[in-house]
Predict the structure.
Amino acid sequence: MAKGNKQSKEPKGRKITLKMAKLALKLTVDGKRRLDLSNMEIASFPKCILKLCDVDELDLSRNMLKKIPDSIDKFVNLRWLDLHSNQLDHIPEAIGHLQNLYSLNLCNNLLSSIGLPNEIGLLQKLRSLNLGMNLLESIPSSIAALKELRHLGLFNNHLTRVPECLRNLPHLESINLKCNPIPSGDDKGIDPIQRVECLYLVRESCLCASCLKKVKDARQRLDSRLSRAPAHGRSIFAGLITPNSVAQEDQATWR
């Protein structure tokens, strides 16, 4: 029998060396250190990056990762973790040790309900959690402990009801539940939140000067139209700028 016939035909992915990882280090606009290894055809978690575990942000999105090791808890300073568009079906319990994390993106993976650990509820500083485009039929009830959570993505999953734990999140500003098989009428008590899936309330401090000018110009045009409309047809949103998700996405802080 010729040698090599038993070799695996599965792609091994690109091997990342410590030198490559160091070259991928970047400085964000707010002076944080980000390790950007996105879209590099990585199939297994590069062990060498554990030597760079003091970074503030880690981007491993758009790769072929199937597993995140327990050693992810070495990144104790991590505030931003992006794992979207991989092949993950499980997140380790060690994720709960990342106590400084404020943004976690797990969108577009293969996560089912058993793939999300209860320890995700230990991320007390978490403000943004994206679980969209997965296989979730439910989410851990421990998410109710994320009292600082502002933005939650649950779109394109298999949810058949609005999770009860969402009703206990005091600072939740936006939630996206689009493209789930949730029966109409099952959203009682969560209406004010669910409407925000297409409406983002943007603070002036979040916008650059250019975007802020565009928003104010749009608001002036809206006010002008409203001033000419019949009084009974007007809607007043006191204290708001213009609901605009595009402007928010243009900012360096909304990645």
User: Anything to note?
Assistant: Residues 70 and 94 are 5 Å apart (CA to CA).
